[in-house]
Amino acid sequence: MDNNKDNSNKKFNNFSLTPFIVTNMALWQQSSTMWMEMYKEFAARSQKISQSWSDALWRTSTSEEYLESRENVSLQGHIDNNNTNRNNKKKMRALVLQGGGSAGAFQAGAFKALYEKITREDKENGNEGRPIFDIIAGTSIGAINAAVLVSHVAENKTWKGSSEKLVEFWKYLSCPTPDITKISANWKKEHDKNNPNAASAEAARRYYSIKEFLKSGAEKVYSPIMPPKEDEKFFDQANKRILYSKQPLQKSIEKFVKFPIATSYEEGEPRLLVVSVDAAEGATVTFDSYEKGKDPNGKDIRKTVYYGQSSQEEKQQQQQPIVIEYDEGIKIQHVMASATLPEFFEYEEISGHKFWDGGLLSNTPIRELIQAHKDFWEYKLDSKELENSILEEASFNVPDLELYMVNLWHSNDDVAPSDPDGMTDRLKDIKLHDQYYVKESILQTYYIHLIERLIQLGIRKKNNNNNNELKNDINNILQNYTPSLDTTEKPKKYLDIIKTQFEITKIENIERRDDNDTISAKDGDFTSETINKLIRDGYESTRRKYSALVLQHKQQK
Q1: Are residues 73 and 111 in contact, defined by beta-carbon separation less than 8 angstroms?
Q2: CA-to-CA distance for 115 and 122, rounded, in angstroms?
Q3: Out of 307-321, 362-376, 406-420, least confident range
Q4: pTM, whole model, 2 decimals?
Q5: 275 neighbors 289 (Cβ within 8 angstroms)
Q6: For 89, phi and psi rounded to 5 degrees?
Q7: Distance from C-alpha of 516 to C-alpha of 528, rounded to nearest angstrom
Q8: What is the pLDDT, as a whole number, of residue 458?
Q9: Measured between alpha carbons, how far apart are the two ends of the chain, in Å?
Q10: Residue 174 pLDDT grade (very low, low, confident, very high; cuts 50, 70, 90)
Q11: Cβ-Cβ contacts under 8 Å for 547 (sequence gap 6 or more)
Q12: What is the mean pLDDT of residues 241-245?
């Protein structure tokens, strides 16, 4: 019995409930290179018309004042009033939900406040009945929350009751605080002696509750698989590993979500994006509830196509993509794949591929949302139509996005902690905050404005001077191929890169903050006391955020 206890304690001390993020900037670096190459070619051709104009535009577009003004525009949800095409563009609302285990209860409260806010604003603006969100993208627990919401809307044909459904799910998932009297005895002695270093009673309750869960399981989330798994490679008796069954979590999800989830843009239903990681390929994989095409019989095709991290030989031989089909819609396996914690749960296997938690590579799935948005509208609007709109009118037809994010890990803290658990807690916050792509998305918006104006220049010069020379020069540039980089993707034309571009016209960031009783394993606390508090905190902090913004706006007036 004592040996089991020691093994459980070792497991707790060495185990991180949320996976490490390995960020991959190669895709962004390739995109940045492409944008800069396009700018250089455009600028060189534009010198035929006006060298001073080109230089002035570049200086203005990259000046600190200009970038600050554009960022304010993006964050406030405004658009360029001098661009009629852009003023008339459709906007869609997207919700991004981070992964973070039991802290996902915060998202239930935050969504309730967002639902109330957006419903009220839509009514005031004459848009009553508009979908609350057009897209919901999630990783890990964020994917589970997203599935609960989208399933409710698809099944009931209304957003009414969706926030209550998500809160109900979390209350069902929670469990009473276990008996921690014995396991916390040493802490209790020090606490009773008023040891200044001893944790608070609430922090100790959370800490030891999770240690007890790891020994005995959390009833509706996971249970330990016994006996521990032996080390059959090095035969190290101290290297036994306890894995956990995810069947309790799967059954809990299936109680609140109707699978498969297949939704339609034409029906006004929200799009569900669930992000996972192919463990063998080391690549993010996005499962999508919207169709990707039609078969010869007119039936919807749903599939995910991706490339792995191939060897150099495979790259030279043009690697074949990996295709996973799920025409009926997203199933429980796809959602579980997004929430399969490495070294905690067994792999989730789909179509012969093994998957891990999406938080490994994208805990805040913004880049997956952006790519999925581009891909869908290229299919929906037709690639040729998108190309012609740019070549003839300098018009980007993919709908812009208003982006709402509910983050479970905060980026900064008041102090750098010095105790072991505090340092582990801070380390996880920094790793899993995963917000670098937000700034890159804003920068991409600046590039879009610049390219749009350069193309418009060619059209205006042609219309004013009846001279096709500059327009033809620009079109020729757009037909050129991008520089060849060491990637698995096929070379693309510049026109292919920009034809599906769109703007993020608003970014609303709701972030959970730790309280004074936080612990490093906060993502594993499924006690009802903590879950109820997280739901309240999510609701109240979101309401306070928007109340402060309204007050600030009134003061500015």
Answers
A1: no
A2: 11
A3: 307-321
A4: 0.82
A5: no
A6: -70, 145
A7: 19
A8: 67
A9: 69
A10: very high
A11: none
A12: 95
Using CA atoms, how far apart are residues 173 and 105, in angstroms rounded to an integer?
Answer: 10
Name the percent of the chain lying above pLDDT 90: 59
Element (H, E) at 343: none
In one letter, which amino acid is 531? I
Residue 515 Cα distances to 103, 187, 425, angstroms: 12, 20, 12
Q: Cα separation of 92 and 76, whole Å? A: 15
Radius of gyration over every alpha carbon of the chain, rounded to an integer in angstroms: 26
Structure tokens at 277: 């990681």
Distances (CA, A) of 19 to 15, 299, 432, 486, 539: 10, 38, 8, 28, 27
CA distance 53 to 42: 12
371, 62 Cβ separation under 8 angstroms? no
Lookup: tokens for 473: 């020069």
Q: Given this model, what pLDDT does residue 525 score? A: 98
Question: Can you state the percent helix, strand and coil of the chain, rounding each to 5?
Answer: 50, 15, 35
CB atoms near residue 468 (< 10 Å) = 12
- C-alpha to C-alpha distance for 126 and 141, rounded to whole angstroms: 34
Contacts 24+ apart (CB under 8 A), 77-85: 77/402, 77/505, 77/506, 78/505, 79/400, 79/503, 79/505, 80/449, 83/452, 85/393, 85/394, 85/395, 85/396
Token representation of residue 158: 């209304």
Q: Residue 26: is its pLDDT beyond 80?
A: no
